[in-house]
């Protein structure tokens, strides 16, 4: 069996171990990042929606940074939103702060009924910079 090339951001290792998943896996020049939510250090949801979205992006950026990537390396985005008809506009007020400039990555938005107490989750696939492909 091949060993997965797992990437962990600093300071949250125990949270991922407790929930039994890897924050990201590097494979063939790509980084597959698990869904990131606006969780505080203890794993609890940030109750304010705007702050929760910002924290989800900060958690995502920490995973990307641990793999020597940035959001500019992201090519594919999937977001999950509880009650998107009600929350989409508020969420999209925060997104441009983290999204960068065009050309933008592609995106799929999915409306869901439950996210373990969260209202927003983002998962991405990023291109690993050329220097890291040899790992």
Automatic annotation (TrEMBL):
<dbReference type="GO" id="GO:0019239">
    <property type="term" value="F:deaminase activity"/>
</dbReference>
<dbReference type="Pfam" id="PF01042">
    <property type="entry name" value="Ribonuc_L-PSP"/>
</dbReference>
<dbReference type="InterPro" id="IPR006175">
    <property type="entry name" value="YjgF/YER057c/UK114"/>
</dbReference>
<dbReference type="GO" id="GO:0005829">
    <property type="term" value="C:cytosol"/>
</dbReference>
<dbReference type="InterPro" id="IPR035959">
    <property type="entry name" value="RutC-like_sf"/>
</dbReference>
<dbReference type="InterPro" id="IPR038743">
    <property type="entry name" value="YjgH-like"/>
</dbReference>
<protein>
    <submittedName>
        <fullName>Enamine deaminase RidA (YjgF/YER057c/UK114 family)</fullName>
    </submittedName>
</protein>
């Amino acid at each position: 069996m091949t060993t997965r090339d797992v990437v962990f951001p600093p300071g949250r290792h125990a949270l991922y171990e407790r929930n039994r998943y890897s924050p990201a896996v590097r494979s063939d020049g790509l980084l597959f990042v698990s869904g990131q939510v606006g969780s505080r250090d203890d794993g609890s949801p940030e109750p304010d929606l705007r702050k929760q979205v910002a924290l989800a992006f900060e958690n995502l950026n920490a995973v990307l940074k641990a793999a020597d990537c940035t959001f500019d390396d992201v090519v594919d985005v999937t977001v999950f939103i509880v009650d998107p008809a009600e929350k989409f506009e508020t969420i999209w007020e925060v997104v441009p702060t983290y999204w960068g400039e065009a050309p933008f990555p592609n995106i799929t938005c999915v409306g869901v009924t439950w996210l373990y107490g969260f209202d927003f989750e983002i998962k991405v696939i990023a291109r690993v910079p050329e220097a890291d492909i040899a790992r």
